[in-house]
């Protein structure tokens, strides 16, 4: 039993099959050796046979096998964990990107600005398992997901999940599930229909305002790189040396998105799925966030009108940083036009266009030395873009999350062309900082304007203290619901 999980409360949630707790805890059943999600349809075990654990990795560490009915690989949340410890969240962010596939815990800790010993201690406390155990569990659950949702070969699944070899993949699946991968696949009967590309399910915890998410992305879609049409989001991508396109739609009754991914190197598939979860903010606990914001009368009506408003992320942090610089002191539409011109002039063409998607967004090395005349930028902004691109070219990890939000903002504002507003916006959408808050934003200040006048940024910051640690979600509501009406 994890010290932060209260047995009686968890058992009540288990009996109710309460979806709000899906990803908050897992039930290890000592009489069967299996661990389940709180929403498992199986007959609930007796309370004395239950051990409640904070993550799938913690259950795996204790020798419990994943349930084949409720399928823990479908749990919403980063690596099957939905806690709020910031350093742990940042570490999981990097683990899901493959930081421990080729690296070690010491290197991961260095990137987070903590010691390896402290990082291990945090994981033991909040996740119930070591970082290496979390990475291994993540590989196993992602492989199980691909077995059920794709027709990829066993070799491709082993590579995509980060095992490095089919033998390691087979051994890990046999140890975990007690049967070989081929038998697991035959028992699931859920393989996707033949389709071009790989289609995967991306579960989330409701509510989810898909219409608002698509509307936000549509107004900022870069011509040739991404598009929103027919209730779908499509774009080109480059990821870990792989190239391709993706097509995302929503299956709202099933509380999941469906992504069809066309990719030339299957090894990068796990990173693509991780980025999609960040782009669509699928790991947030919106029930808790909305409930917190609704305590403030300013948001109570807004939350009732549009539950499930999420903070749109980005596919690529550099792309978002360029967009943020382009958008300084001009409208969203004007910034989108400039981004489209930049992509048309410097983007790499795809071998074959799909649904109007024919370009990859230009990489730092290209923008760093490019002639930006003719795009419509001022000389100062063009210089800022080139300097930002040069900095990213020289240090590809420059726009990664740091140990605290304050440190992330401090490091971002050291970059050319990035002031406090731009830094907060990048932290909010690219670094997935839930408490980022661009207090000087004109739209936020207008949303709180009264007959007595408009608040100052300092006054807005003071007002926003009550919204911590979800100020980014408050900002989004003020942008999309400035007068309190539905978005």
TrEMBL record:
Q: What is its EC number?
A: 3.2.2.21
Domain HTH araC/xylS-type residue range list: 89-187
Query: Does this entry carry the keyword DNA damage?
Result: yes
Q: Which domain of life is it from?
A: Bacteria
GO MF entry, a single one? methyltransferase activity
Question: What EC class is this?
Answer: hydrolase
Q: What is this protein called?
A: DNA-3-methyladenine glycosylase II
Q: Which organism is it from?
A: Acidihalobacter ferrooxydans
